[in-house]
Amino acid sequence: MIAPNELGYLPETPSQTAGPYVHIGLIPRQAGFDIFENSLGAALLGPDTKGERIRIEGRIFDGTGAIVRDALVEIWQADSHGRFNHPADQQQGPRDESFRGWGRTGTDFESGLWFFETIKPGRIAGRRGHSRMAPHVTLWIVARGINNALSTRLYFGDEAAANAEDPVLRIIEQPERRKTLIARYEMRDGKPTYILDIHLQGAQETVFFDV
User: Fold this and answer.
1) In the 3-class helix/strand/coil scheme, how is 39-52 assigned residue by residue?
2) CA 96 from chain center: how many Å?
3) For residues 184, 187, 192 and 193, what is the CA-based torsion angle, rounded to 10 degrees?
4) Distance between CA atoms of residues 196 and 199, nearest Å
5) I want to staple 154 with a disulfide (CB 3.0 to 4.6 A). Which of 7, 75, 86, 137 is the partner?
6) What per-residue confidence (pLDDT) applies to 4?
7) Which residues in the chain show pLDDT less than 70?
8) Cα gap 189→58, rounded to integer Å
9) Burial class of residue 151, CB neighbours in 10 A (0-12, 13-18, 19+)
């Protein structure tokens, strides 16, 4: 038997991207396969959920500017009090048990649009003496051709004061790059709607986080 250190330099094992049918395994109902009894879907809230009800949406573009039409998008967010529906959240204060805080959907196969029906999250307590985080939503993206899932954030365009204090936004040195995380606000059919397009590569590439 040959010990690994006797072989000298060992090249990296070839990586493998997500395949073309990843969306069928992760969001089968959208792909036409109704195989799960419970499909959590794109609505994170229930009739008793507290807070401002909003819609967040966007599209995903590849490096050539083409729309990615079969990506998976997950979100994780705090409730209106700034608390997460998870036992690891040890913050003080109330927690909205009627708010799930996690959702999964896919981009529409025709338009490429993804969306979630949720509530606007509250500010979250900062760590190690940092100022409180601005209201935000964490996004996790999987698509064919991506080696590792991509993590990013959505901040709200009508929260300028809170965004200016956010410790995560402030570590992004270039102000133009920060703008890739700020969702545009508009009122649509009486409901606040926030739009954030995600660019995987190119001049408008979204800021992604190594988490």
Assistant:
1) CCCCECCCCCCCCC
2) 21
3) -40
4) 10
5) 137
6) 54
7) 1-40, 126-131
8) 17
9) middle
Q: Are 193 and 187 in contact (CB under 8 A)?
A: yes
Reported as a single tens digit per residue, the pLDDT across 15-52 is 555 655 666 666 666 666 665 555 567 888 889 999 99
DSSP single-letter state for residue 180: G
Q: Give the pLDDT score at 70.
A: 85
- The token duo for 161 is 């004061």
> Side chain identity at 162, as an amino acid letter?
A
Q: Which 3 state secondary structure label does DSSP give 25?
A: helix
CB 121 within 8 A of CB 137: yes
pLDDT at res. 122: 94
pTM: predicted TM-score of the whole model, two decimal places: 0.83
Q: Within the chain, how many helices (H) and strands (E) appear?
A: 4, 9
Q: Residue 22, SS3? A: helix
Q: In which residue are the tokens 């985080």 written?
A: 133
**How would you classify the pairing of strands 136-142 and 72-77?**
antiparallel
Structure tokens at 99: 């708010």
Question: Exposed, middle or buried by CB within 10 Å (0-12, 13-18, 19+), for 27?
Answer: buried
Residue pair 77/138 in contact by the 8 Å Cβ criterion? yes
Model pLDDT, residue 29: 67
Amino acid at 117: E
Q: What is the largest CA-CA distance in the chain?
A: 70
Taking residue 131's Cβ as centre, other Cβ atoms within 10 Å add up to 14
